[in-house]
Specification:
single chain, alpha/beta, eight-stranded parallel beta barrel, 17 helices
Length: 364
């Protein structure tokens, strides 16, 4: 069986971490759905920048929009992106219907410039939700301190949310609780919680890309050979260990009496979505961050190259709960080495917001 399609037999959904006009108009998405079991798509400003920069498909539309003096920068950006999001939602609608609203989503991100503005994020989320006007869209909100209450309110409003730029287990816990709080508020005012969907996008390869050099620096400065060896054994291990530990926490949060009450009303868990799963270090397997994170009620959103690689030579085994104790040891050893996961996560969030802001600006 196609390894990509085989992932669904272990409870994992494959989403594509890319969007482009050509991808939508060529019929390739339908091929991915039929051949690979594609269940959804994600986008962000950097993805749109790449799509627009590498294709002439947007040129005429972009020129017309830029020529209009009445449009703000945000309006110009949305003029380019909203139609792609609608088209993707329409193509994925069959998946949305056949999975009873569990999958079939496309995500659209709020402006990265609103990351520190709770009310601004809520208002933009509501506006984008209305403008796209598709039940199978998710509004992407970064997991900043100001983003968490916005997530809670948007869920309470009945808006599907994809929480992005998650790197730290503690922040994930805050996000998961915000989802539950939002569902309870929605139910209290008579809303239908069974129609709600949310994913928590937990980033993977970017963690190793930032932490590996820190580990190497610590190892180079170590005076004892055994200490150097111990530190070097952590290389390429932290991102996966961090994700495995967080999946364990996911299972704990979405259990117990509080969640059971919502589940009895048809509510579904906020799945962990593994993002940034293309290997950035060429020394690592190009399918490392797929093979090591396979398990029930998860999503892996892969860039096109990673999908191709996994289709070609991926191994499908239930790996996400394998050696949880080892994952805990890796994270403890990282802390003992004086490397703070919280500080790394904070830096990665800042980098991600800066990347997305720069990309949105370059589109225009």
């Amino acid at each position: 069986m196609n390894p990509l399609k085989a992932l669904e037999t272990l409870g994992q959904s494959v989403w594509l971490d890319f969007i482009s006009r050509q991808l939508l108009t060529s019929g390739k998405i339908k091929t991915l759905i039929e051949r690979d079991g594609l269940k959804g798509m994600t986008s962000n400003p950097a993805i749109f920048e790449k799509a627009i920069d590498e294709s002439a498909d947007y040129d005429a539309e972009l020129q017309q929009l830029v020529a209009r003096s009445d449009l703000s920068t945000i309006a110009l950006y949305e003029g380019i992106t909203i139609e792609d999001i609608r088209q993707a939602a329409d193509v994925l609608r069959s998946v949305y219907d056949s999975t009873d609203r569990r999958d079939g989503y496309i995500s659209l991100e709020v402006s990265p410039y609103l990351a520190a503005d709770t009310e601004g994020t809520i208002e933009e989320g509501r506006r984008l939700w209305r403008r796209v006007d598709r039940p199978n869209v998710m509004i992407k909100v970064p997991a900043t301190a100001e983003g968490v209450p916005a997530i809670r309110q948007m869920i309470a409003d009945g808006i599907n949310v994809n929480i992005t730029l998650l790197f730290d287990q503690k922040v994930y816990e805050d996000v998961a609780v915000a989802y539950i709080d939002g569902l309870e508020a929605l139910a209290a005012r008579g809303g239908n919680v069974s129609h709600m969907a949310s994913v928590a996008s937990f980033f993977i390869s970017r963690i190793d890309a930032m932490i590996d050099p820190k580990i190497q620096a610590k190892a180079a400065a170590a005076s004892a050979a055994d200490e150097r060896t111990r530190l070097e054994s952590l290389l390429g291990k932290v991102a996966i260990a961090n994700a495995k530990r967080t999946y364990k926490r996911y299972k704990e949060i979405f259990s117990g009496d509080r969640w059971a009450k919502l589940a009895s009303q048809g509510a579904r868990t906020q799945r962990l979505l593994w993002a940034s799963t293309g290997a950035k270090n060429k020394a690592y397997s190009d399918v490392l961050y797929v093979e090591e994170l396979i398990g029930p009620d998860t999503v892996n959103t892969m860039p096109p190259g990673t999908m191709d690689a996994f289709r070609d030579h991926g191994k499908v085994t239930p790996s996400i709960e394998h050696d949880i104790e080892g994952a805990e040891r890796v994270m403890s050893a990282l802390e003992s080495a004086g490397i703070s996961m919280t500080q790394v996560a904070d830096a990665l969030v800042r980098d991600g917001l800066r990347l997305f802001a720069d990309a949105a600006d370059k589109v225009l």
